[in-house]
Amino acid sequence: MKLLIVDDSLVVRNKINRNLLSSFDSILRAGNGVDALRIVRTEKPDFITMDLTMPEMDGVTCIRKVKKINPRTHILVISALADKATAIAALSLGANGFLCKPFTDDELNQAIRKTLEIVF
Predict the structure, then answer these.
(1) Rounded distance, CA 120 to CA 114, Å?
(2) Contacts for 115 with CB less than 8 Å, ≥ 6 apart
(3) Is CB count within 10 Å lower at the N or C end of the chain?
């Protein structure tokens, strides 16, 4: 499976990458929604971790566009925006799970497993 990590924070991208390195065949990274869409079109990732607050294109807009390109892409939102309305909006657009920042390695792994269980 190919993973795409979408977050404007290099620290967060590195943390997710480091934690999931052995879980995916390939890990791609993008710092905003515009770069993420470019990667989605060419690399067709199976799973995406998506921040919501980013420059150039926010995560909500990106989720909507990713789902138009490939509705079967699995998306786990990882965001500091922890209110229920934000989570519901992301899930209604096609995200498969939601994890609040900051998160531990165990919480990330559990959220990935839970998201994959829901999908499969």
Answers:
(1) 10
(2) 47, 74, 76, 96, 97
(3) C
Task: Find how far residue 110's CA is from the centre of its chain.
Answer: 14
120 burial via Cβ count (<10 Å: 0-12, 13-18, 19+)? exposed
- pTM here? 0.92
- Per-residue pLDDT reduced to its tens digit, 57-87: 999 999 999 999 999 999 999 998 766 787 7
Residue 40 token pair: 């989605």
Spans of all domains in the chain: 2-119
pLDDT digits (tens, 9 = 90+) for 94-108: 999 999 999 999 999
pLDDT at residue 54, as a whole number: 92
Question: d(Cα 117, Cα 44) in Å, to the nearest integer?
Answer: 20
DSSP 46-107: SEEEE-SS-SSS-HHHHHHHHHHH-TT-EEEEEES---HHHHHHHHHTT--EEEESS--HHH
Give the angle 107-61-11 at the CA atoms, nearest 5°: 40
CATH topology of domain 2-119: Rossmann fold (3.40.50)
